Amino acid sequence: MNFSVADHRPLVLTGMQPTGRLHLGNFLGAAYHWRKMLEDYQCFFFIPDLHAMTVATKAPQLQDNTLSCIAQYIACGLDPAKCTIFLQSQVTGHTELAWILGCITPLGQLERMTQFKDKALKQKEFIGTGLLYYPILMAADILLYNADLVPIGEDQKQHLELARDLAQKFNSRYSEIFNIPEPYMGSVGARIMSLQNPKEKMSKSDPSAMATLHITDENSVIRKKILSAVTDSQNDITADPERPGILNLLNIYAAATQMTLESAVEHFKDHRGYAAFKNEIADVIIALLEPIRQHYLSLREERDYLLSVIHEGAMRAQARADTMLSKVYHTVGLL
Ligand code: ATP
Ligand code: MG
Known about the structure:
This protein is mainly alpha-helical. It has two domains: 11-190 and 303-332, Rossmann fold, CATH 3.40.50.620; 219-296, Tyrosyl-Transfer RNA Synthetase (Orthogonal Bundle), CATH 1.10.240.10.
């Protein structure tokens, strides 16, 4: 693949925090769509390791999560020969631009962010300012590359809205230098819920082991987690928001088989009881994830290769970031 500066394809930028092992929501709501973009877009897939610092993690753990995340990206089908994979902390410009954007962000808008409120509730003893500032750093991640399209799950909609607001605000206050980035969201899989509490989204940082289905889970673990997913005391299969456990399993099945939710309901309409329903979903997920896990396990042995991927990625990303940051500094009047 020729990563020339003359590449005029629209630029896609997105990432997943190395806060833990990637899960089914990250795959069905994100990576699955990303890999379909490799041919038609210039894809910048980064690993927001600075964002991950909003969760207290020991240094060896963060390093391990980061290497594991690079391997999981590649195992999910993000071919480094066709995209730019890099670490946020290895490119200067993200935090610099975040500072400048922070100066034009109303404090109230940050305090109203749903994810800040949800995560702050979970971090009872200490809420770092980084958690509040996170959406500004995310806006900087996107605007630093003048991304055209940002693939996200539903949970990131509000943050992307802020990035768009800040781009517009900057453009009207100073000069029109930023694209207004568009969100890209798949129709199914955009919100996979926890298997134990289907009213909450599945999340890397969920402490409950059975709630989150990791893409590198062994087949037997996948089946066990799906069979013990919380449902209800009825016995038919309907897509009813009042029955969030069943609805979540239907969504998972629909996203994994790339069918509509309606077709998934039709498929299971004669089922009574949940055992066969859950086993069929487990079969589909195992078939989907098994090759990814195998590829991941072999990549995990190749530390030098993983480091070379991010090294090359950082060089390409830095070239683009430098151009944009100089433009921003000049525009705001920094000498
Ligand atoms: P954390 O709990 O640390 O925030 P996370 O599971 O929310 O982790 P992120 O790294 O924040 O994962 O998000 C990576 C991508 O995965 C984003 O595009 C996000 O919208 C998407 N995503 C996260 N959780 C889900 C989910 N449950 N369903 C669908 N998409 C999801
Ligand atoms: Mg998240």
